[in-house]
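Customer escalation, tier 2.

The customer says the design service returned an amino acid string that "doesn't look like it belongs to this structure." They asked us to rerun it and document both sides in this ticket. The original structure tokens are below, unchanged.
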């Protein structure tokens, strides 16, 4: 009788873990944007924004190995501070949107640092180059995007070397380091 009692006690003790499951959120393209900033001409800051972001965020509070983020960013949505810079960034001088219409990020690991902070490891693909990057992120859960739907907001940032991704023109004029700031809003996916 004792082994059965011990087994039942273990099942009851671990039952919250058995029922905890990953929850997937669909990125809300209309509420999500990615900002790029860099130095040009040695001192002036330039900025651009990308929108129309799609993808998913999967989080499991009981097991961070289940956490996963996948993001697709259409280069055609890029808008800079003026029309000429927007055209240059989309042209083959930089992103070459005609041949490489999408930037892609997929996480390889999401590590909770506690208090809603995360370190996100993953692969960023720009043009035909894929490289590992690390982002620091914070999560706001329950933020109202749509009152009828549970939602979350993820704010993340990183910096990359643009030349590492073959976005390497005008090196003498435009700094190599590009700061990236993401604001991702997502809604819980509907169960099937």
């Amino acid at each position: 009788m004792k082994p059965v009692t011990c087994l039942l006690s273990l099942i009851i003790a671990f039952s919250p873990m058995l029922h905890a499951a990953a929850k997937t959120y669909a990125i809300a393209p209309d509420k999500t944007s990615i900002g790029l900033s860099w130095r040009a001409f040695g001192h002036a800051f330039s900025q651009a924004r990308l929108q129309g972001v799609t993808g998913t965020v999967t989080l499991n509070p009981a097991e961070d190995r289940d956490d996963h983020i996948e993001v697709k960013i259409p280069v055609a949505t890029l808008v800079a501070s003026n029309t000429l810079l927007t055209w240059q960034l989309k042209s083959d001088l930089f992103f070459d949107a005609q041949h490489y219409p999408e930037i892609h990020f997929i996480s390889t690991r999401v590590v909770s640092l506690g208090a809603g902070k995360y370190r996100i490891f993953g692969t960023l693909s720009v043009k035909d180059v894929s490289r590992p990057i690390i982002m620091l992120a914070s999560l706001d859960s329950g933020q109202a995007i749509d009152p009828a739907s549970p939602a979350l907001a993820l704010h993340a940032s990183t910096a990359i070397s643009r030349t590492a991704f073959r976005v390497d023109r005008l090196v003498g004029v435009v700094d190599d380091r590009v700061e990236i700031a993401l604001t991702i809003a997502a809604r819980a996916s509907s169960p099937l």
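Tier 2 assessment: The sequence is consistent with the input. The longest strand covers residues 102-114. The chain is about 15% helix and 50% strand. Sent an explanation to the customer and offered a walkthrough call.
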